[in-house]
Each structure stands twice: as structure tokens, then as C-alpha cells.
Amino acid sequence: MNQKEVLSIVDHTLLGVAAEWEDIREILDDGIAYGCASACIPPAYVKEAAEYVKGRLAICTVIGFPNGYHTTAAKVFEAKDAVANGAQEIDMVIHIGALKNKRYQQIEDEIRAVHEACDGRILKVIIETCLLTEEEKIKMCEIVTKAGAEYIKTSTGFSTAGAVFADVELMKKHIGAGVKVKAAGGISSFDDAEKFMSLGADRLGTSRLVKIMKNTDTGAGY
Question: How many Cβ atoms from other residues are within 10 Å of residue 193's Cβ?
Fold first, then answer.
């Protein structure tokens, strides 16, 4: 597998709280230059970013981020607002406390409501695997499948840990037909990326792979 193939499934990501427009624009330019799947950026920049890329790169954003304890109504509003501003992909965080309380129907209903608000755009559901038991991870695979979202995603990158190989392998085993896996958080090398892909990751959330390309002499001919 070559680096171009890996980069083609990368959501090139910048979600830091101090990100300025110049930083976002660099992410967009690099995402286009290196053939990434999307740029994942804060909601406040979605409209400006969509206007800037003019369809050359999918714009992804986050809702209920990073803690997930927003109300369903708030998440639905965020999703509708993001879509109106030009987002083509939405990454939402579940209410982890509700999962711990076994309020499974509440979580399923929320995902379904947000998915409807996405109006045909891709929805990725972040379950924050580092905070969950194996049983909870498996349960979320079932819930995401039933709710109709396109992806289940490991991590925000803002909690105690990011993606690990075992979680991607577990999720791939338990998701239903039509659901894909996104690994995100801490993916720092092409070797790691290829391992995640071999275990079943269909999308990767990271900024480091593009940075590696920019810091080598192979950027023009990868």
C-alpha cells in the first residue's frame, strides 16, 4: 500500500481551540494537495472553508464536541447549521454518561435524530473508546448500526487516549452491514495507519500523516 492510498482515506484534522483562519486554510490547502478524504475543522469555520475550497475537498465538522453531553436538541441544531453552512460530513459525540446508565434507546434515538438532520450527509458517531468497557463498545456497535449512521468512530482525540488497534478490530467484528469504522486520535505514522486499515478502518482522523509528507522529499511524487 502506498502513501497516496493511505492519505485518500484521511480526514485531515485541526480542532484545536486556538485555531485561526490561517491555520484552517493551511489544512484545506494541504488536504487538497495530498488528496485527503476531507478536512475536519471546527464548526465556526465551515462556511468560510466551504466557500474557499469550492468543492475541491469535502468539509467535515464536529458536533456535541468533545464531551457529548449536549442535549439532543442542541446536537440536532448544530448538525442542521453545519449542513446549511456547507458541511458534507458530521462527526458527533455520544452522551457517554447515558451509555454508562444503559440508556440505550435514548442514545439510539439521538443518533437517528442527528442523522436525519444531516439530510443525506455522512454521519460518524464518536464513542470515545478509551472511556468504555468492551461490553459498552460492542453495545455501541449495535446501536450505531440500528440508528443508521454511516460510521462509528473511536475517539475525539481530546480524552485520555485515542485509537488503538484492538478497538478497531473489535468494532469491525460487531458493526452491521453498511457501517464503517473511523480510527482517530494518536495516529502518528504511516505504519500505524496501514495497520489500522488492515484491521478494518475505513477512515483515519489525523493531521500527522500530511505533516510527515510535508517534511520529506517525497511530497511531489507520492
Answer: 25
Q: Quick check: helix, strand or coil at residue 166?
A: helix
* C-alpha cell belonging to residue 78: 448544530
pLDDT higher than threshold 50 for residue 165:
yes
pLDDT tens digits for range 166-190: 999 999 999 999 999 999 999 999 9
CA-based R_g, the chain, Å = 16
The full DSSP string for 118-163 is TTTSEEEEE--GGGS-HHHHHHHHHHHHHHT-SEEE---SSSS---
Q: Which residues contact 94 (CB under 8 A, 6 or more apart)?
A: 64, 68, 107, 110, 111, 125, 126, 127, 128, 140
Residue 75: which of 176, 149, 160, 12 has the closest Cα? 149
| Grid cell listed for 162 | 485515542
Please give the torsion angle defined by the CA atoms of residues 15, 162, 88 and 177, in that order, rounded to the nearest 10 degrees: -170
Using an 8 Å Cβ cutoff, are 119 and 102 in contact? Answer: no
Look at the alpha carbons of 7, 183, 190, 43 in this order and tell me if their dihedral is positive or negative. positive
For residue range 141-151, what is the model confidence (pLDDT) as tens digits?
999 999 999 99
What are the tens digits of pLDDT across the range 23-72? 999 999 999 999 999 999 999 999 999 999 999 999 999 999 999 999 99
Closest residue by Cα to residue 76 from 140, 40, 47, 119: 119
Active site residues: 91, 153, 182
